[in-house]
Design brief:
Elements (H helix, E strand, L loop, with lengths): L1 E4 L3 H12 L8 H9 L1 H59 L6 H23 L1 H8 L1 H19 L1 H25 L1 H18 L5 E17 L4 E14 L2 E5 L6 H5 L6 H11 L1
Parallel strand pairs: 1-2
Antiparallel strand pairs: 2-3, 3-4
Helix pairs in contact: 1-8, 3-4, 3-5, 3-6, 3-7
């Protein structure tokens, strides 16, 4: 039975790279490969989704505008009816005050009262539309805001959808760029995973440590390379009754081959073996 400790190093590097770029949608290398394979379809689906979402927003605004318009019309009708009823009551009171009084004092009081009511009635009739407008001002303003938004959405539909698409496409293209750059690392992870799969098939009991690393407080002097080893990193360290085995996997790219800073797999094994 093989007891495995630690995650494959390249998988950690892939996750770290994705985190640095703020990408959290991928949970495996298969997710990344699937994304790259279906990129064109996803971009097309994204466009249609943005278009559908936009039209849904417009539909909701139009429904809201319809209800606000109904509410406004009802409020305006009610305000007009209430004001007309009030004016009619004033008119009835004026008719009462026009009737003959019992004495001169009452006649004088009736006359002053009549003048006051006539003045109010005149003001209300003269400013009828303005008074109604004040009573429905809040409802009218809410309706105008929604209608303005609806008109803007309808008139600039293509431009607004394009703007939303540009923002989303920019994120999608950034994601593709990062994912594409990770392909060599993904290939390395696949290779390491295959190695782990083979090691799991070994008979007997053993311990497999993935991405083993250690930093030495006192660097080890390596006479063969005339250098001091301050740290080592081993892709896979297999421990069983037969001994300790250092296993390195490499997926070389042109850049890594050209780099003078990278050790070859053999050099890495020799350094790690000496340090251990």
């Amino acid at each position: 039975m093989t007891v495995i400790h630690g995650q494959i190093g390249t998988l950690k590097q892939i996750r770290k790279t994705l985190d640095v770029h703020g990408i959290s949608r991928f949970n495996s290398t298969a997710d990344i490969n699937r994304f790259l394979k279906n990129f064109d379809n996803e971009r097309e689906e994204l466009f249609f989704k943005i278009e559908r979402d936009f039209d849904l927003e417009l539909d909701k605004m139009q429904a809201q505008g319809y209800h606000l318009e109904k509410d406004f019309d009802l409020l305006k009708t009610t305000a007009k009816a209430n004001l007309k009823n009030y004016i009619r009551r004033l008119h009835s009171k004026c008719d009462v005050l026009r009737k003959p009084a019992k004495n001169a004092v009452m006649e004088l009081l009736y006359w002053y009262g009549l003048q006051f009511l006539l003045l109010i009635k005149y003001i209300l009739e003269k400013n009828f539309d303005r008074i109604v407008g004040l009573r429905v001002r809040g409802s009218k303003k809410r309706l105008e805001v929604v209608l303005k938004a609806i008109n803007g959405y309808s008139a600039d539909r293509h431009a607004l959808i394009s703007t939303r698409c540009d923002d989303q496409f920019r994120k999608l293209l950034h994601m593709r760029s990062v994912a594409t750059d990770l392909l060599p690392m993904i290939a390395g992870a696949v290779g390491e995973d295959m190695v782990v799969g083979e090691l799991k098939k070994l008979s007997g009991n053993q311990v497999l440590i993935n991405d083993f690393s250690i930093v030495f407080e006192n660097p080890r002097y390596h006479k063969q390379t005339n250098s001091r080893i301050r740290s080592i990193q081993i892709d896979h360290l297999l421990i069983n009754t037969s001994g300790i085995f250092i296993i390195e996997t490499k997926n070389w790219s042109k850049a890594s081959i050209a780099s003078l800073d990278l050790w070859s797999p053999l050099q890495q094994v020799q350094r790690a073996n000496f340090a251990l």
